[in-house]
Amino acid sequence: xxxxxxxxxxxxxxxxxxxxxxxxxxxxxxxxxxxxxxxxxxxxxxxxxxxxxxxxxxxxxxxxxxxxxxxxxxxxxxxxxxxxxxxxxxxxxxxxxxxxxxxxxxxxxxxxxxxxxxxxxxxxxxxxxxxxxxxxxxxxxxxxxxxxxxxxxxxxxxxxxxxxxxxxxxxxxxxxxxxxxxxxxxxxxxxxxxxxxxxxxxxxxxxxx
Length: 209
Ligand code: 0O2
Ligand code: 0O2
Hints:
The chain is an alpha+beta fold. Helices cover 55% and strands 21% of the residues. It is built from 6 helices and 5 strands, in the order αβααβαβββαα. A 5-stranded mixed sheet has the order 1-2-5-4-3. The longest helix has 42 residues, at 167-208. The protein starts with a helix and ends with a helix. One ligand 0O2 binds at residues 20, 43-45, 75-77, 139, 141. One ligand 0O2 binds next to helix 2 and helix 5.
């Protein structure tokens, strides 16, 4: 039984703060090197106690097993412009020595029944505390701006309908998720087109020499 939530959540608070700085740092480094920046913005939160309690009841997770079985008490979100950027960010995070990716869930290739798309990583992250190191779990959700827009609206509608959407709303949500994904595909095509133009130009310049 957790008596002091503030104590229990302290390492998670620290992890979210540190990870926000580190992930936002990636963005800064790309910008400074004048490279394509794969990250638009980063947010993070520690799950509120009432949400932890609701989820533990729903999933049958005993409170003394939260550390091991609830992987999103510390949650980070990375928003990207292109689907391709998501894969670049995932590749980058897999190589880091300050975290260990232990689970990957690709809800982009395998979208959820709701229409939800995102790439989820569960990581082990070591937090340095005054009484030693503690390894905690954190969840990083990586998605495009369009996926985030859809998920945010669907999430707030969920509050309104308490997760019990009328069939017509569910269907509309699924259709709008597809529309959001089509936007990503148009973006991707545009990106390829402008890359193509760049390469073409380089080749032409090369040919002239
Ligand atoms: P709600 O009800 O979800 O809106 P900063 O000062 O810029 O460092 P700040 O103000 O602490 O950052 O917060 P940040 O990082 O801008 O964004 C916090 C919000 O991001 C949260 O809002 C969540 O909506 C969202 N969020 C980020 N990561 C996750 C995640 O992994 N899971 C979930 N569920 N949400 C996430 P609130 O405050 O929790 O309220
Ligand atoms: P919150 O803080 O309200 O967002 P887990 O739920 O993590 O124990 P699971 O179900 O396998 O295990 O995890 P999953 O599906 O990888 O991640 C769950 C989280 O993904 C949710 O957190 C949401 O943030 C997000 N998510 C998953 N499906 C949907 C969806 O259909 N719509 C929206 N808007 N978000 C979704 P929680 O637990 O809901 O907490």
